[in-house]
Design goal:
3 domains; Elongation Factor Tu (Ef-tu), domain 3; 26% strand; OB fold (Dihydrolipoamide Acetyltransferase, E2P)
Length: 344
């Protein structure tokens, strides 16, 4: 019995060794000219929102519409924002006039008016001084009461002070406003202009513009909804860039370089190839995703690769399975030439 068991084990070892030798001898040679990868088409998506709060007045596009950069997509109710802009413009105009008044200085009529007031008060002061002198002499002769003399002296001193103040007022009118007052008015005008710019920007923010060319993927809000900077209005799928997210096995990582030429094939368009290039290689390894099929074992480590695609007819769609064939025998282009690949 033991001999039969031993013979069976030896027979199995011989058969296993023969099979391994046959597979080793008939193993297909490694292709050094190209590398095939598998992945899915991906694009960038943008959630567009107003940089302001308010009720949505209109949505100008529908789902599936193609839009161009700067195209109007949606608008908020602008009534309050327009009123705020009008008020800001009015304050700027008022402050401009106030600054111009300070820089112009006193008008000739104002200068003559202060001169006349100073002369009138000087004459009044002279009369008060004369009255006081007269009562003072009468008091020496016992013809005026001391109280009358004191009142006359106080009136003369008050009139003299008013005359001096009028002279100072006239001097200020001749000199004009202080430089500090003009500087303060200029600063106030700058603040009012900044408020006008802010009001104009807020009014512009009531219009949602397309940041780039793309396709409207989803309408999230509708006219009448309340919008805010935290609430997306539309989702825009960008036309460019377009790439295939694939995974390079660890054993082939040394054969792939940034800028390497590639051909991309899709099951949706049999027999058609799209031009592309390797634009990104992940610096970190990960396990093979379940949705990626490769000839290698799934337990092998892989590195994510982003292969950019030229799709001038916009036939590829988000999530579409794709096959990538890398030309290993073609030297990669310089990084400075990558952005121009689809325009060549």
């Amino acid at each position: 019995m033991k001999k039969k068991l031993l013979l069976l084990v030896l027979l199995l070892l011989a058969v296993g060794g023969g099979v391994y030798w046959w597979q080793f001898m008939h193993k297909a040679p490694r292709d050094t000219t190209q590398l095939t990868l598998y992945g899915n088409v991906e694009i960038r998506e943008v959630d567009l929102a107003f940089d302001a709060s308010g009720h949505v007045l209109a949505i100008e596009v529908e789902e599936g519409d193609r839009v161009q950069p700067g195209q109007t997509l949606a608008r908020l109710n602008p009534n309050k924002l327009e009123a705020a802009l009008v008020a800001a413009e009015a304050t700027v105009t008022a402050q401009k006039q106030a600054l111009a008044k300070l820089k112009t200085g006193s008008r000739p009529q104002e200068i003559r008016q202060t001169r006349a007031q100073a002369d009138a008060l000087a004459a009044k002061s002279l009369m008060a001084r004369i009255s006081y002198q007269r009562l003072l002499k009468m008091g020496q002769k016992k013809l005026a009461a001391p109280e009358e003399i004191d009142q006359a002296r106080a009136a003369a001193e008050a009139a003299e002070a008013e005359a001096r103040a009028a002279e100072e007022t006239h001097a200020l009118a001749v000199v004009g406003p202080r430089a500090e007052d003009i500087a303060m008015a200029e600063a106030e005008l700058a603040a009012r202009r900044a408020e006008e710019v802010l009001a104009r920007a807020r009014l512009a923010d009531a219009t949602l513009l397309a940041p780039a060319s793309g396709i409207v993927r989803q309408r999230i809000l509708e006219p009448g909804d309340m919008a805010s900077p935290q609430t997306p209005v539309l989702t825009l799928a960008l036309n460019d860039p377009l790439w295939v997210r694939s995974y390079v096995p660890e054993t082939d990582l040394g054969r792939v370089r940034i800028g390497m030429a590639a051909e991309i094939h899709s099951d949706s368009f049999p027999g058609k190839s799209y031009r592309g290039w390797v634009g990104f290689l992940s610096p970190t390894a990960e396990f093979t995703p379940k949705n990626v099929e490769t000839p290698e074992l799934r337990t092998r480590l892989v590195y994510q690769a982003r292969v950019f695609v030229c799709d001038p007819q916009e036939e590829l769609r988000l999530g579409m399975p794709a096959t990538v064939i890398l030309a290993l025998d073609t030297p990669p282009k310089a990084d400075t030439q990558l952005d121009r690949r689809c325009t060549e």
